[in-house]
Amino acid sequence: MDPQHPDKRDPKQYIDLGHSKAENHLKTQVALYEKRKQYDASTTNVLRAFFWTNLFGFFYHYLKSRFGRKAPYQFYPANGDNGIYPLITGQDTVAIALLSDWATDTVESDQVAYVVSTYDPDYTIHLGDVYFVGTPREVADNFTDANASWHYGRHGSLALAGNHEMYSNGKAYFNELLPAMRIRKGDEVATQQAGFFCLENEHWRIIGLDTGYTSTNRPFLEVIFKPDCSFRDEQLAWLRNVVRLGDPTDTRGIILLSHHPYFSSFRDDHPVIGRQLREIMGEAARPVLWFWGHEHRLLFYDQFGFPDGIRAWGRCVGHGGMPVEISEPNRGNLGQLRLYDRRVRERIRGMPVGYNGFALLKLQGTSLLVDYIDQNNVVVVSEEWTVDRQTGGLAVQTLSVRDGIKRYEPVANKDA
Ligand SMILES: [Fe+2]
Ligand SMILES: [Fe+2]
């Protein structure tokens, strides 16, 4: 615990965090225990708190989530909402902040949220992972309590689910977080009804995709049906029939958001999601800009796609609130990694840790400026995208790259 910020979680708790439900549930209980301990430090109470919070709490919550049911999947239409929200009009620029893996309730996540607030964006979107397991308390600490630091956009906020929300079966994600996510829809204010959505204007469509719900499965079933983060049928039907992603006459620029990466030079690829999109987009399939998180780093990939999937420029912005990993890429065979913020900010438990931050998108007509801003309000990379309205094709120009950002050279790409 950081004595200067006793009500915040210590980043040490997050170093080397694994992906098992058991470990994450245990960490949630330890964090609760740490908080209780500081308010009542007598030996008997510390011991009692330890047993009740850590051991009893762990087994109770872990077993409940392990063998309990997932929250029911929510999809459109729901309460008269089809999940398509027109972006605000009547201003030159529409600003959207993207934060991923941010909800850690640390000094660092507060700092990132503060920097976001200084830009007063029209929309703010969380790309998933509420730590450790997305309990109601954890949702409240990060998003809904009076002193929670999530910055709500002027015209709305939306949230995708990551794997961590699903470690508690998504219950607090659907029941607590989504009702807190509000978005202006014309003269009305809607609350988010499902784990996917589309924001759009004359030139751009920003489509939030749910990969979290299918990232976990029940015990034993996990062995046979390995969770693959694929899109469920309800979401596919929505993409096909409501968003009409396969409409070749719609030449707006497509920006995708998801928690899990389509491809990675570090960890698992998720080729199935690119394949599912390719099936829907058919003739209309053209390279897209795709922001994702899950890996706690800031990465820029060249355009890439698996042979039967869509092609995308990948931007990993999973550096929102977790200790930022700055290891060497270990799956470099894809050869599409171009930039990686590997600047060392500090060492935690002997591990070098990088800078947290977020992406700020500024839509101006057919142009899209993206600034990648760190927790100290330094613009690390800046790029400009343009959409060709004849074809829907995207082009990118890198405007600036701060010193210290590691560049990777293209290598022969046998998968492309
Ligand atoms: Fe994460
Ligand atoms: Fe994740």
UniProtKB/TrEMBL annotation:
Record field: transmembrane: 46-63
Keyword Aminoacyl-tRNA synthetase assigned: no
Domain of life: Bacteria
Entry keywords, A to Z: Membrane, Transmembrane, Transmembrane helix
Protein name: Calcineurin-like phosphoesterase domain-containing protein
Positions of the Calcineurin-like phosphoesterase domain: 115-297
InterPro entries with a match to the protein in the record: Calcineurin-like_PHP, Metallo-depent_PP-like, STPP_CPPED1
